[in-house]
Specification:
Blueprint: H1 2-20, E1 34-38, H2 45-51, H3 59-65, E2 79-83, E3 89-91, E4 94-100, E5 103-105, E6 108-109, E7 115-116, E8 121-124, E9 129-133, E10 139-142, E11 147-156, E12 162-177, E13 187-190, E14 195-198, E15 201-208, E16 211-225, E17 228-233, E18 236-240, E19 249-250, E20 257-258, E21 268-273, E22 281-287, E23 295-301, E24 305-309, E25 314-323, E26 333-339, E27 348-349, E28 354-357, E29 363-365, E30 374-380, E31 388-395, E32 399-401, E33 411-421, E34 424-428, E35 432-437, E36 452-456, E37 464-470, E38 482-484, E39 488-492, E40 500-506
Parallel strand pairs: 12-13, 28-35
Antiparallel strand pairs: 1-2, 3-11, 4-7, 4-9, 5-6, 5-8, 8-11, 9-10, 10-12, 11-12, 12-15, 13-14, 14-16, 15-16, 16-17, 16-18, 18-19, 20-21, 21-24, 22-23, 22-25, 25-26, 27-36, 29-32, 30-31, 30-33, 33-34, 33-35, 36-39, 37-38, 37-40
């Protein structure tokens, strides 16, 4: 009965004081880490204890902290200062914003929009990645071959106070942590031998075997390496292995990207980097956007040439970091590049050059391209195609013979062809030479061999090639690829029918 009387008395007092607009209440000592709670009409000790405070925090602590003359008297409009650690926790969630490749959440295929709560487990496969948005707006990129567990994701029921703890079992994460006032939104990433604690910074962390690695792009973090506190700032990293003391290690500088073309017209994008002292390898990541919200390619390279295959046409962002002898990735360089490689260029058929007598119509032939809806043909008097003698913009077949060959003057010409998809043109094929000879000249050797299939393509010096020819578009049940020493296929003509050809290049270092 005494408790009921207390509630009734407080209610009457709150109502009366609100009418009188009293301001004679006590105010606690402000602190940047405190939550300022404004007392509302109808508040009482039981309600505030239940809704605002952690279960082990008694109301008497709040009263003492705020120097209240009477712990049982509350006034509407009164401001109570409560340390955030005393505020009651509630469960919160991170959410998956983007996915690439194989990603599982709690053992099931993850989807964009999925909630990641306390005790959730996230796994990415080779080539997979996921970007999470944390409750405080920070982002956490989980990169390929990573196993990470959400230990705690909570927020205080009152105010912008968050607490997030992840355990990185294996793999690598890249995080951008939003800045909050002191202790209002801590983020902890636990590794095997070290824990990163941050409030506002861009940092990376990896668990590579027994090594826990920390890398700081900018800002400051605390790295707890098995009880040893290491303060890290932008441009610094550290390694904790559970044996040796962790040290502050300067990160390698951002790599220098050399001479990017205006656009890449090959389905294999090659990016060259400047040699760097101390770099054991380079790590490159590609995304559609500058924020790298959705990473679509991630690879490690031993040399200074990055090779990125099978990108659709479009504009991309590349970020690349040098890796030192500790396994730490250095500061990142970012650059934008354009791919314009589709529809792919046709492979030209038959002999390298064409020689014919004046008055004979020359035939031009190339392989059909599956993604092409038509072809654009050009014949010029110079290799730079500044003086075009003939152009055809809507060729539907994979070759044609024009009837005005007799009108071509005696001399040398050059020809090329490009695939078309709607109004979009792909890159040009290699260039071939056409020689028109005087009609009284000796007849040239036969241009075309009816018992040979000849196809050629662009080939860089030092590269070899492999090819497969199949009557099936999925290349199922065929022999292993056959090696070619040059960018040209010259084989016995197969039996009549429709065939599919695929070719891949092999660099001198074995890269396929």
């Amino acid at each position: 009965m005494q408790k009921i009387v207390l509630k009734f008395t407080l209610g009457v007092m709150l109502f009366g004081l609100s009418v009188l607009n009293s301001t004679s209440y006590a105010v606690g000592t402000p602190s940047a880490a405190d939550y300022a709670y404004h007392v509302q009409m109808g508040d009482n000790l039981s309600k505030l204890t239940r809704d605002v405070l952690e279960s082990h925090i008694g109301w008497d602590k709040v009263a003492k902290y705020n120097d209240l003359p009477n712990a049982h008297l509350l006034y509407p409009g009164e401001v109570l200062h409560i340390p955030f650690a005393w505020l009651r926790n509630s469960q919160a969630e991170a959410h998956i914003e983007t996915l690439t490749g194989g990603v599982k959440l709690n053992g099931n295929p993850a989807k964009v929009g999925d909630a990641v709560s306390s005790n959730a487990v996230l796994d990415t496969s080779a080539g997979g990645a996921a970007r999470m948005r944390l409750p405080d707006g920070s982002t956490l990129n989980v990169l390929e071959n990573t196993h990470i567990e959400a230990k705690v994701i909570t927020r205080k029921k009152k105010g912008d106070f968050f607490n997030t703890v992840f355990k990185l079992v294996s793999g690598r994460i890249d995080a951008v942590k939003n800045a909050f006032p002191a202790d209002r939104s801590p983020l902890l990433i636990q590794g095997m031998h070290g824990t990163i604690g941050v409030r506002g910074t861009h940092f990376r962390m990896a668990q590579d075997g027994d090594n826990t690695l920390a890398e700081i792009e900018h800002g400051k973090v605390g790295f707890d390496a098995g009880g040893q506190a290491v303060a890290l700032s932008g441009g610094q990293g550290s390694v904790a292995d559970g044996v040796k003391p962790a040290a502050v290690i300067p990160l390698l500088a951002a790599p220098v990207v050399l001479n990017l073309p205006e656009q890449f017209e090959n389905i294999l994008v090659r990016v060259n980097l400047k040699e760097m002292q101390g770099a054991q390898a380079f790590r490159a990541e590609v995304a559609r956007e500058a924020e790298f919200a959705s990473i679509i390619s991630q690879q490690t390279y031993k040399g200074t040439q990055l090779r990125i295959a099978d990108l659709p046409n479009g504009t991309y962002w590349l970020r690349v970091r040098a890796i030192d002898s500790h396994g730490l990735q250095g500061l990142e360089a970012r650059t934008q590049f354009v791919v314009k490689a589709h529809p792919v260029a046709p492979l030209l058929r038959e002999r390298d050059d064409i020689e014919l007598l004046h008055g004979v119509a020359p035939p031009f032939n190339w392989t059909a391209v599956e993604e092409a809806q038509g072809y654009r043909f050009q014949l010029a008097r110079d290799r730079e195609f500044k003086d075009v003698a003939l152009k055809q913009d809507n060729v539907k077949a994979s070759g044609f013979s024009f009837t005005s060959g007799q009108n071509l003057q005696i001399g040398e010409y050059y020809w090329r062809v490009a695939s078309m998809s709607g109004t979009e043109q792909g890159p040009w094929s290699e260039i071939r030479k056409l020689r028109v000879l005087p009609s009284y000249a000796p007849a040239p050797a036969a241009m075309f061999s009816k018992d040979r299939l000849v196809v050629s393509w662009h080939g860089e010096t030092g590269r070899t090639f492999e090819y497969q020819l199949s009557a099936s578009q999925d290349f199922a049940g065929i022999e292993p690829p056959r090696r070619l020493a040059e960018a040209k296929l010259d084989i016995a003509m197969p039996v009549p029918g429709k065939y599919f050809l695929r070719v891949r290049g092999i660099d001198a270092d074995g890269y396929v």
